[in-house]
TrEMBL record:
Native source organism of the sequence: Streptomyces cyaneogriseus subsp. noncyanogenus
Pfam families linked: GDPD
Domain GP-PDE: 9-273
Name the UniProt record assigns to this protein: Glycerophosphodiester phosphodiesterase
Lineage: Bacteria, Bacillati, Actinomycetota, Actinomycetes, Kitasatosporales
Listed InterPro entries: GP_PDE_dom, PLC-like_Pdiesterase_TIM-brl
GO molecular function: phosphoric diester hydrolase activity
GO biological process: lipid metabolic process
SUPFAM superfamilies the UniProt entry points to: PLC-like phosphodiesterases (SSF51695)
Amino acid sequence: MTHPRQHPIHVVAHRGASEDAPEHTLAAYRKAIEDGADALECDVRLTADGHLVCVHDRRVNRTSNGRGAVSALELADLAALDFGLRKTREFWRARDEQPQWEHRPEDREATSVLTLERLLQLVHDAGRRVELAIETKHPTRWAGQVEERLLLLLKRFGLDAPADPERSPVRVMSFSARSLHRVRAASPTLPTVYLMQFVSPRLRDGRLPAGVSIAGPSIRIVRGHPGYIERLKAAGHQVHVWTVNEPEDIDLCVELGVDAIITNRPRAVLDRLGR
Ligand code: G3P
Ligand code: CA
């Protein structure tokens, strides 16, 4: 079990600086690092040929110019797509805002499908400590393969078995307790975050599934369940809240003493925290 952080609230860039640049692209993660984020959040899925890629939805339809399920496409198919088309000049014009980021077709890599391996390399080369919060998606479909591939990749970067979980630069998150259990079984010192969209009756007293050290409640839970964050903390858990974008929600998280804020706007949150 971990103890609450003694240092400032960690700011985690949700899908990168995804308010400004297209989510889960190298462009969004580079921007998050520039913005000063402490950590990067990403969702991972397996392609048909066994590569872990950073894509949120089951299908690529919303975020790219392609169609189909990630699990049915090979990495080469995904590499032919552009994941940067949602934040064009027209997008910013429609919002009557100055572009925060410009789509430059000549920088193909910036908006190509992002493999987890490339993201690990980016973090490795960042020149300062940048942590990673990796969320396993569709872990049931692949019956353990997502976690297996994830741990193999982390091993390549020397990140799979931290000596001190408190200082691990990587944590694995999931809505699936089974997925987190698989990770801990293979790598007992890697911190795990149990994501919650609602508070199930058996967890209302602040307990988490066995072995999980960090709670990941949504901001709706934080707003709607007075006293719950205190119970999680009293049970010795860190609390990482998602997805916190509004000033009043940032202030509520500060007031409650959460450990990490996961946000689409890392720079705005850092500003609000006076950092
Ligand atoms: O950081 C946790 C959060 O990302 C979970 O929700 O749907 O954005 O993956 P989702
Ligand atoms: Ca996520």
